[in-house]
């Protein structure tokens, strides 16, 4: 995680296009640069419970693609398990992102980077779904084999 003084949404450095995001109150501002590794929807119980929503729209990035623009000392962390370090704003409680150290990836919730062109490719943990989504995208029972899952596909 790289902390920078400032970034602009029109920044076109070697990182490529940068998109800004923030918590609910704006005390914490983040930015993502370049392209995510994968985007999609997670239906697992942990994502639903943490997000207080029926599904989590995720964008998974290499950690170096994420920059804390403002409020780094205002970011709280909660990890129920060693696989997910959930980050939130200490002022408003708004959620920001989840670090997955075992995968070397960080999920910046799509809703946090509202201007980013979210293009979901897959649904994961569909066996736990509470909101079936007939969008034609592949529905994985859990997660891909390269992330420790079975890779089994389920019907929509
Ligand atoms: Zn906040
Ligand atoms: Zn999940």
Short précis:
This protein has 156 residues and is mainly β.
Structure description:
The strands form 2 sheets. A 7-stranded mixed sheet has the order 8-9-10-11-6-5-12. Strands 1-7-4-3-2 form a 5-stranded mixed sheet, with no helix packed on it. By secondary structure, it is mainly beta. The model is unreliable at 5-14 (pLDDT under 50). The radius of gyration is 15 Å and the shape is globular. The chain has one helix at 45-51, and strands at 2-3, 12-13, 16-22, 29-33, 38-42, 56-61, 66-70, 75-81, 84-89, 95-100, 105-109, 122-124. The protein is 4% helix and 38% strand. A hairpin with a 2-residue loop joins strand 2 and strand 3. The protein binds zinc ion (2 copies).
Record keyword descriptors for this entry.
single chain; mainly beta; 156 residues; seven-stranded mixed beta sheet; binds zinc ion
């Amino acid at each position: 995680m790289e902390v920078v003084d400032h970034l602009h949404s029109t920044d076109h450095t070697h990182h490529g296009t940068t998109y800004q995001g923030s918590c609910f109150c704006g005390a914490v501002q983040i930015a993502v640069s370049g392209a995510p590794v994968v985007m999609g929807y997670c239906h697992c119980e942990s994502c639903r419970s943490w997000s207080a929503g029926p599904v989590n729209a995720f964008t998974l990035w290499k950690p170096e693609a994420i920059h804390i623009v403002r409020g780094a000392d205002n970011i709280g962390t909660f990890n129920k398990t060693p696989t997910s370090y959930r980050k939130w704003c200490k002022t408003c409680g708004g959620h920001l992102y989840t670090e997955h150290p075992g995968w070397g990836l960080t999920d910046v919730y799509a809703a946090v980077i509202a201007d980013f062109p979210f293009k979901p490719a897959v649904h994961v943990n569909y066996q736990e779904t509470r909101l079936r989504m007939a969008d034609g995208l592949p529905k994985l029972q859990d997660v891909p084999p390269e992330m420790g899952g079975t890779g089994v596909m389920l019907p929509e």
